[in-house]
Amino acid sequence: MVDEAVRHRIVEIAHQFFIKRGYRHVTMQNIAEELGMSKKTLYLYFASKEDIAQTVIENTFQSISNHVDASTAVDGNPLVALRVTLMKIREETLQLSPFFLEDIQKTVPHLWEYIVRVRSEKGRFVTQLLNKAKEQGLIRSTLNPHIITVLFIESVQTIIRPDIWSKHGFALDELWDTLFSVFFYGVSNEEEHL
């Protein structure tokens, strides 16, 4: 029988290692030693380091899903809800660590594809909130919320790729902040009132 508290602790320790060292430079031995257990015991909980990494990623996406569900259920200004949710998603994504994401992209392609796929699926909430914002006259009437969402999600897909932001010498958090600023200023209906 699997002890869920031990399983949780394994994921927590592995996540800390992944943040500091990336994926490639963490071994099952490192994790086992940090937990004070044998590798044999560790393998009772997870078949591989890849399984642990997948759990770390799934936990992050579950957290993001919780934020998305909360934002779409709120009545009030949909742009405020969108901004708050995107900032929470930014924080969750940064918790995966640039080193970890870069290693996953290079060494575990099916996990990277999972990240890309889930991110695209989760983007639907952006359209939902932008449609509400358009109905309330909060974004420019000439803009199509679905097109805005596609442009935004594709931009996120690009900047989250470690090979892109590292090639240009930018920090991931700086790219997130710039994208958010351009996005929110760009959809604002202030221009229509000039």
Automatic annotation (TrEMBL):
**What are the DNA-binding region positions?**
27-46
Any one GO MF annotation of this record: DNA binding
Q: Which domain of life is it from?
A: Bacteria
Keywords, A to Z?
DNA-binding
Matching entries from Pfam families are given as:
TetR_N
Which InterPro entries does UniProt cross-reference here? Homeodomain-like_sf (IPR009057), HTH-type_Tx_Regulator (IPR050624), HTH_TetR (IPR001647), Tet_transcr_reg_TetR-rel_C_sf (IPR036271)
| Domain HTH tetR-type per the UniProt entry, residue ranges | 4-64
DNA-binding found in the keyword field: yes
Xref: SUPFAM superfamilies: Homeodomain-like, Tetracyclin repressor-like, C-terminal domain
Q: What is this protein called?
A: TetR/AcrR family transcriptional regulator
